[in-house]
Amino acid sequence: MKKNLQTSSTKIWESYYNKSEFHDKWQGNQYPNEELIKFISNQRKNPYDKIRYFEDIKNDFSSKTNFKGNVLEFGFGGLANLLMLKDKGYDCFGLEVSKTSINRAHAYLKKEKIEDIKCKLWKPDTKIPFKDKKFNFIFGLQCIYYNLQLSNLIENIYERLENNGQFLFSFFSFKHEYNKYTDEIDKKRNLVKWSNDHPSFRIRGATLYQPKTENDLKSLFHRFKDLRVFLTESNQLPIFQSWWYISGRKR
Ligand SMILES: C[S@@+](CC[C@H](N)C(=O)[O-])C[C@H]1O[C@@H](n2cnc3c(N)ncnc32)[C@H](O)[C@@H]1O
Questions:
Q1: CATH superfamily of domain region 2-249
Q2: Could you report the per-residue pLDDT of 62-102, keeping only the tens digit for each?
Protein backbone atom coordinates (compact mmCIF):
# COMPACT_ATOMS: atom_id res chain seq x y z
CA MET A 1 0.00 0.00 0.00
CA LYS A 2 2.82 2.38 0.93
CA LYS A 3 4.38 1.96 -2.52
CA ASN A 4 1.13 3.10 -4.15
CA LEU A 5 0.93 6.10 -1.86
CA GLN A 6 4.51 6.99 -2.76
CA THR A 7 3.86 6.60 -6.48
CA SER A 8 0.70 8.66 -6.41
CA SER A 9 2.41 11.49 -4.46
CA THR A 10 5.12 11.58 -7.09
CA LYS A 11 2.48 11.72 -9.85
CA ILE A 12 0.70 14.57 -8.07
CA TRP A 13 3.92 16.57 -8.03
CA GLU A 14 4.69 15.78 -11.65
CA SER A 15 1.28 17.07 -12.69
CA TYR A 16 1.80 20.13 -10.46
CA TYR A 17 4.69 21.10 -12.74
CA ASN A 18 3.39 19.59 -15.95
CA LYS A 19 -0.33 20.26 -16.15
CA SER A 20 -0.54 23.61 -14.46
CA GLU A 21 2.17 25.36 -16.42
CA PHE A 22 1.00 27.71 -19.15
CA HIS A 23 2.97 29.35 -21.92
CA ASP A 24 6.04 27.33 -20.97
CA LYS A 25 6.45 29.15 -17.65
CA TRP A 26 8.29 27.25 -14.90
CA GLN A 27 6.09 26.87 -11.81
CA GLY A 28 7.52 27.18 -8.34
CA ASN A 29 9.75 29.58 -6.47
CA GLN A 30 12.06 31.63 -8.62
CA TYR A 31 13.90 33.03 -5.62
CA PRO A 32 15.83 31.13 -2.96
CA ASN A 33 14.39 30.24 0.41
CA GLU A 34 15.13 33.01 2.91
CA GLU A 35 15.97 30.64 5.78
CA LEU A 36 18.47 28.84 3.55
CA ILE A 37 20.15 32.12 2.64
CA LYS A 38 20.51 32.97 6.33
CA PHE A 39 21.63 29.46 7.23
CA ILE A 40 24.39 29.37 4.60
CA SER A 41 25.53 32.92 5.15
CA ASN A 42 25.84 32.25 8.88
CA GLN A 43 27.55 28.88 8.52
CA ARG A 44 30.90 30.27 9.59
CA LYS A 45 29.41 32.16 12.52
CA ASN A 46 28.48 30.84 15.90
CA PRO A 47 24.72 30.12 15.92
CA TYR A 48 24.50 29.66 19.69
CA ASP A 49 26.40 32.54 21.30
CA LYS A 50 25.18 36.17 21.03
CA ILE A 51 28.62 37.68 21.54
CA ARG A 52 30.62 35.32 19.33
CA TYR A 53 27.98 35.63 16.58
CA PHE A 54 29.10 39.22 15.95
CA GLU A 55 32.82 38.56 16.31
CA ASP A 56 33.43 38.19 12.58
CA ILE A 57 33.61 41.96 11.91
CA LYS A 58 36.64 41.87 9.63
CA ASN A 59 35.66 38.58 8.04
CA ASP A 60 32.13 39.64 7.20
CA PHE A 61 32.60 39.21 3.45
CA SER A 62 34.25 35.82 3.68
CA SER A 63 31.16 34.59 5.47
CA LYS A 64 29.16 35.29 2.32
CA THR A 65 31.21 33.83 -0.55
CA ASN A 66 34.05 31.39 -1.33
CA PHE A 67 32.29 28.32 0.01
CA LYS A 68 33.83 25.04 -1.16
CA GLY A 69 32.56 21.51 -1.49
CA ASN A 70 29.58 19.53 -2.75
CA VAL A 71 25.97 20.27 -1.86
CA LEU A 72 22.94 18.12 -2.63
CA GLU A 73 19.35 19.40 -2.73
CA PHE A 74 16.24 17.22 -2.64
CA GLY A 75 13.16 18.64 -4.41
CA PHE A 76 14.91 21.57 -6.10
CA GLY A 77 11.67 22.62 -7.87
CA GLY A 78 12.55 25.79 -9.77
CA LEU A 79 16.35 25.55 -9.18
CA ALA A 80 16.50 28.86 -7.28
CA ASN A 81 18.26 27.47 -4.18
CA LEU A 82 20.95 25.71 -6.20
CA LEU A 83 21.62 28.80 -8.32
CA MET A 84 22.19 30.74 -5.11
CA LEU A 85 24.54 28.07 -3.71
CA LYS A 86 26.49 27.95 -6.97
CA ASP A 87 26.93 31.70 -6.61
CA LYS A 88 28.36 31.13 -3.12
CA GLY A 89 31.01 28.80 -4.61
CA TYR A 90 29.59 25.32 -4.06
CA ASP A 91 29.50 22.45 -6.57
CA CYS A 92 25.80 21.68 -6.77
CA PHE A 93 23.80 18.49 -7.24
CA GLY A 94 20.01 18.35 -7.33
CA LEU A 95 17.24 15.75 -7.24
CA GLU A 96 13.59 16.06 -8.28
CA VAL A 97 10.75 13.56 -8.61
CA SER A 98 9.18 15.64 -11.39
CA LYS A 99 10.47 14.80 -14.87
CA THR A 100 9.09 18.08 -16.18
CA SER A 101 11.08 19.96 -13.57
CA ILE A 102 14.26 18.04 -14.47
CA ASN A 103 13.78 18.72 -18.19
CA ARG A 104 13.29 22.40 -17.53
CA ALA A 105 16.36 22.51 -15.29
CA HIS A 106 18.49 20.82 -17.95
CA ALA A 107 17.23 23.21 -20.65
CA TYR A 108 17.90 26.24 -18.42
CA LEU A 109 21.41 25.09 -17.43
CA LYS A 110 22.27 24.42 -21.07
CA LYS A 111 20.96 27.80 -22.20
CA GLU A 112 22.88 29.62 -19.46
CA LYS A 113 26.00 27.41 -20.02
CA ILE A 114 26.07 26.45 -16.33
CA GLU A 115 28.13 23.30 -15.76
CA ASP A 116 28.56 23.13 -12.01
CA ILE A 117 24.92 22.18 -11.26
CA LYS A 118 24.06 18.54 -12.01
CA CYS A 119 20.43 17.38 -11.81
CA LYS A 120 18.95 13.91 -11.74
CA LEU A 121 15.57 12.27 -11.30
CA TRP A 122 14.90 11.20 -7.71
CA LYS A 123 13.13 7.87 -7.30
CA PRO A 124 11.97 7.60 -3.68
CA ASP A 125 12.89 4.30 -1.96
CA THR A 126 16.14 4.03 -3.95
CA LYS A 127 19.68 5.02 -2.96
CA ILE A 128 20.94 8.55 -3.51
CA PRO A 129 22.53 8.78 -7.00
CA PHE A 130 25.84 10.56 -7.89
CA LYS A 131 27.57 7.44 -6.56
CA ASP A 132 31.14 8.74 -6.54
CA LYS A 133 30.26 11.85 -4.51
CA LYS A 134 30.21 12.68 -0.82
CA PHE A 135 28.54 15.89 0.27
CA ASN A 136 29.43 18.70 2.67
CA PHE A 137 25.82 19.83 2.86
CA ILE A 138 22.56 18.00 2.08
CA PHE A 139 19.24 19.81 2.27
CA GLY A 140 15.60 19.68 1.20
CA LEU A 141 13.09 22.43 1.89
CA GLN A 142 9.32 22.01 1.94
CA CYS A 143 9.70 18.54 0.40
CA ILE A 144 11.66 15.83 2.26
CA TYR A 145 8.55 14.61 4.13
CA TYR A 146 7.11 13.30 0.86
CA ASN A 147 9.52 10.35 1.24
CA LEU A 148 7.46 7.80 3.11
CA GLN A 149 10.40 5.54 4.03
CA LEU A 150 12.00 8.56 5.63
CA SER A 151 14.18 6.72 8.18
CA ASN A 152 15.85 4.70 5.40
CA LEU A 153 16.51 7.85 3.44
CA ILE A 154 17.99 9.61 6.48
CA GLU A 155 20.30 6.63 6.99
CA ASN A 156 21.47 6.94 3.39
CA ILE A 157 21.93 10.72 3.84
CA TYR A 158 24.14 10.00 6.87
CA GLU A 159 26.31 7.67 4.75
CA ARG A 160 26.67 10.18 1.94
CA LEU A 161 27.68 13.14 4.10
CA GLU A 162 31.36 13.90 4.66
CA ASN A 163 32.43 13.61 8.29
CA ASN A 164 31.17 16.72 10.05
CA GLY A 165 29.01 17.41 6.96
CA GLN A 166 25.78 19.24 7.66
CA PHE A 167 22.09 18.83 6.75
CA LEU A 168 19.06 21.13 6.77
CA PHE A 169 15.44 20.03 6.24
CA SER A 170 12.13 21.75 6.83
CA PHE A 171 8.89 20.22 8.11
CA PHE A 172 5.41 21.61 8.80
CA SER A 173 5.11 22.39 12.50
CA PHE A 174 1.87 21.26 14.15
CA LYS A 175 0.76 24.91 14.12
CA HIS A 176 0.86 25.24 10.32
CA GLU A 177 -2.68 25.77 9.07
CA TYR A 178 -2.25 23.03 6.45
CA ASN A 179 -2.61 20.56 9.33
CA LYS A 180 -6.36 21.28 9.29
CA TYR A 181 -6.55 19.64 5.89
CA THR A 182 -5.18 16.17 6.47
CA ASP A 183 -6.57 12.64 6.53
CA GLU A 184 -4.78 10.18 8.77
CA ILE A 185 -3.08 7.31 6.92
CA ASP A 186 -0.92 5.64 9.58
CA LYS A 187 -0.97 7.09 13.10
CA LYS A 188 2.04 5.14 14.37
CA ARG A 189 4.21 6.22 11.47
CA ASN A 190 2.95 9.83 11.43
CA LEU A 191 1.72 9.52 7.84
CA VAL A 192 -1.07 11.80 6.64
CA LYS A 193 -2.59 12.73 3.30
CA TRP A 194 -3.67 16.20 2.11
CA SER A 195 -7.45 16.02 2.19
CA ASN A 196 -9.94 16.74 -0.59
CA ASP A 197 -10.76 20.17 0.84
CA HIS A 198 -7.09 21.29 0.98
CA PRO A 199 -7.01 24.90 -0.29
CA SER A 200 -3.99 24.15 -2.46
CA PHE A 201 -6.04 21.89 -4.72
CA ARG A 202 -3.10 20.79 -6.86
CA ILE A 203 -1.51 18.84 -3.99
CA ARG A 204 -4.67 17.15 -2.68
CA GLY A 205 -4.10 13.44 -2.16
CA ALA A 206 -0.31 13.60 -1.66
CA THR A 207 0.90 11.60 1.37
CA LEU A 208 3.57 12.90 3.71
CA TYR A 209 5.33 12.34 7.03
CA GLN A 210 4.00 14.83 9.60
CA PRO A 211 5.78 14.81 12.99
CA LYS A 212 3.44 15.54 15.90
CA THR A 213 6.09 17.04 18.14
CA GLU A 214 9.57 18.49 17.92
CA ASN A 215 10.83 15.36 19.67
CA ASP A 216 9.27 13.12 17.00
CA LEU A 217 11.25 15.12 14.49
CA LYS A 218 14.51 15.02 16.43
CA SER A 219 14.28 11.28 16.98
CA LEU A 220 14.39 10.72 13.21
CA PHE A 221 17.86 12.25 13.16
CA HIS A 222 19.22 10.59 16.33
CA ARG A 223 22.51 9.53 14.66
CA PHE A 224 23.62 13.11 14.04
CA LYS A 225 25.37 15.52 16.42
CA ASP A 226 24.66 19.25 17.00
CA LEU A 227 20.94 18.71 16.34
CA ARG A 228 19.02 21.94 16.31
CA VAL A 229 15.40 22.84 15.48
CA PHE A 230 14.40 26.41 14.73
CA LEU A 231 10.95 27.78 14.00
CA THR A 232 9.75 30.30 11.43
CA GLU A 233 6.18 31.60 11.36
CA SER A 234 4.24 34.09 9.29
CA ASN A 235 0.67 35.29 9.00
CA GLN A 236 1.39 37.27 5.86
CA LEU A 237 -0.44 34.82 3.58
CA PRO A 238 -4.10 33.80 4.00
CA ILE A 239 -2.85 30.45 5.36
CA PHE A 240 -0.92 30.64 8.65
CA GLN A 241 2.55 29.23 8.06
CA SER A 242 4.68 27.58 10.72
CA TRP A 243 7.81 25.62 9.83
CA TRP A 244 10.30 23.57 11.77
CA TYR A 245 13.78 23.59 10.31
CA ILE A 246 16.11 20.91 11.58
CA SER A 247 19.88 20.84 11.13
CA GLY A 248 22.73 18.70 12.40
CA ARG A 249 26.11 17.24 11.53
CA LYS A 250 27.51 13.79 10.83
CA ARG A 251 29.45 12.51 13.84
C1 LIG B 1 6.54 22.90 -2.06
S2 LIG B 1 7.65 22.39 -3.34
C3 LIG B 1 9.19 23.05 -2.74
C4 LIG B 1 10.20 23.28 -3.83
C5 LIG B 1 11.57 23.81 -3.36
N6 LIG B 1 12.23 22.87 -2.50
C7 LIG B 1 11.42 25.14 -2.65
O8 LIG B 1 11.79 25.24 -1.47
O9 LIG B 1 10.99 26.09 -3.29
C10 LIG B 1 7.80 20.65 -3.03
C11 LIG B 1 8.80 19.97 -3.96
O12 LIG B 1 9.01 18.64 -3.50
C13 LIG B 1 9.16 17.81 -4.62
N14 LIG B 1 8.93 16.41 -4.19
C15 LIG B 1 7.82 15.67 -4.28
N16 LIG B 1 8.03 14.44 -3.79
C17 LIG B 1 9.31 14.41 -3.33
C18 LIG B 1 10.13 13.43 -2.71
N19 LIG B 1 9.68 12.21 -2.46
N20 LIG B 1 11.41 13.76 -2.39
C21 LIG B 1 11.89 14.99 -2.66
N22 LIG B 1 11.16 15.96 -3.25
C23 LIG B 1 9.89 15.68 -3.59
C24 LIG B 1 8.13 18.37 -5.59
O25 LIG B 1 8.31 17.93 -6.91
C26 LIG B 1 8.32 19.87 -5.39
O27 LIG B 1 9.29 20.39 -6.23
A1: Vaccinia Virus protein VP39 (3.40.50.150)
A2: 567 788 999 999 999 999 999 999 999 999 999 999 999 99
Cα angle 170-29-112, degrees, rounded to a multiple of 5? 120
At 209 the pLDDT is: 97
Strands 70-74 and 91-96 come out as: parallel
14 C-alpha to ligand 1 centroid (Å) = 10
Give the list of residues 6+ apart from residue 119 with CB closer than 8 angstroms, or none: 76, 79, 93, 94, 95, 96, 102, 105, 106, 109
Atom of ligand 1 nearest to the CA of 10: 16
User: Residue 89, by phi and psi: left (phi above 0), alpha (psi -120 to 50) or beta?
Assistant: left
The reported pTM is 0.95
